[in-house]
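Please describe our next protein:
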Amino acid sequence: MKPPVDLRPHRRRRAGGQRWHEHNSARRTAILAAAIALVEELGPTADISTQQIAERAGLARSVIYRQFDHREDLDNHAREFVFEHYLAEFESVLVLDPGRTAEEIIFEVMSTVVRWTTEHTNLYRFGQLGPLPGQSADSLCTFRERIADTLWERFTTVTTILGIDAEPFHPLVHGLVGLVEGVVAQHLSRSSRPDQDTIARLLTSSTWFLLDGHARDLGYTFDRTATVGVLLGELLATASDRTAES
């Protein structure tokens, strides 16, 4: 039986719309990548024209204004583009590997932060010059919130399983992010910088002392050289003992 409505043209339109969306997205990404490349080369406060961006992207200048409302909109999305890539690198190493020590994991995270900001100092500073899309707040404040939220989510995934109420320590996550950002900013501002490992180890020790100190206040004692698997086992045993006692 012939269907009451011929769906083939509709399917073609959908397929064409999907192709246009992909084409449009590719152009948008090319523009942002070009803008970021120019910032990295010329500096965060360089007077980079839309014509320069268009030429780097291999597109007509008019295409930029079909993708972005105005220059400020382009810059806001470029900052978001930078932070998304930074956040992706940060999240890729934020993994609780049971075969490694907590200190090794913290060091890898801090090394990633120090390395990325050192290698991409112009992008890091550019990211602080204005808001992200749809935000009225300073972009650095917004990004700190996102980093803190990511850390808190990973941290509470473990504490919830262990039955530990970590909510009173929520503000410390934001403080830790501020500490790292402050140390990194000071490191980048120096004409004579210590090597990256030195800064990463300083941040690692500071983070460990902060976590270990508060853990001791709660009655938990950790061996700094123990693997995460061993530490989690000890925490589970302690949590079980406390439950039994209560």
Summary: The chain has two domains: 1-67, 82-245. The chain has ten helices and no strands. The radius of gyration is 24 Å.
